[in-house]
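Section 5.1 Outputs to date
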Amino acid sequence: MRTVRRKISKSVYAMMIALFICTIIITSVRMNTLKNESNMLAVTEQSLVAELEMQNETTAQLKEKQDYMKTKQYVEEVARDKLHLVYPYEIVIKPKDK
């Protein structure tokens, strides 16, 4: 009967060792996968931060343009360029057509 117990206990130890080794392998594979995923997310984060900065700059430029479009100077500029309007006291000199 003693020999039977030893065989059982040896097989239990062998199974525990095999389970421990499998756990280590699975953990290391998963750790490498997570590390790669973390690196990819870091690259994505950097590109998104750069894009956010560009969008913030664009927003600031549009805000400046919007503020400028509310000024009298912009209205006069558009009236002169697009509508060809002038003040009554101004003299317009046009070049001759060739």
